[in-house]
# Entry
Amino acid sequence: MDKPGVSFIIPHKGREELLQATLQSICDLETESPLEVIVVTQNSSLSKTTLAFENTLNLRLLYVEPSLTISTLRNLGVKDSNSSHLAFLDADIKLSKNWVEAMLGELSARPNAVLVSAIQIHESDATILERIRTVLSNRAVDTSFGFLPGRNLLLSRQVFDQIGGFPEHLLTCEDYWFTGKAAEKGVLWYSSKATYVHLGEDRELRAMFRKEIWRGQSNIASLADREIRFTEWPSFFVPPGIVFLALLTLLLGLFGLKALAVVSGVMAALPFLAYVTRLYFLGKYQLPFGSIVAFYAVYFPARAYGSLLGLFRSMGKNLHD
# Structure
């Protein structure tokens, strides 16, 4: 029986060294499946080093407008692809050599599975922030999820067509929308049988703050036209709730309302400490407690601000409809 073909769809903008590392990891895959790679780039040109991968991969490069969303890039890549299976990668992902065989095997072995993803690992010299992200990604493995991040996803073209593609109106959170729709078709499986390294993971808090603002802007819009699972609601309400209560505590203190300030402060502190403690346990006590506190002290305000920006933009669009 012939091995199913896999089309890698990689949206790209900006740094080429990470894209090159991604392409090299595809070159290093150990598989008998026919592969094709479609890079949809918003760069006006690519370097000779990147172009050289056309000699070692079945690679096609599509140049598109910088204004297009990442969903549009992914959908354009699918239109230009030919394989029975689609692999969606970010342009900063290093795959384990067995990724294709393991992911195809998981799809085949699990009749109810419609989409699979490998687990995240980090390099030996990873920063604390990278280690935190890896722990959060792997809070549960070899199990099903209601949604998965879009860094490495494998599914059949048939399922992609049933979903209708990625939502081109969203700036971010398109992977949660897409995988949430896939979960309505069957099981999303997060497998430890293969791995990936997120080469572009934030290494310091300032960069993370900016990126989380950007990620948060499509939080509200991503709720439309799909089933919202109970496990998603905390990510929408906890960050703005904690920030609101923290600001309220400061205002009450300034006005001398000490008793109310204490109540508000406790209400803000309890969920914050719950998240910090949970991550400390998930990391098996290997992550510094202070670093976890710093992580959430940046994460919650950034997500809250991003969600607020997204809400105002959504209201503005509605007003102009």
The mean pLDDT is 91. The longest strand covers residues 187-198.
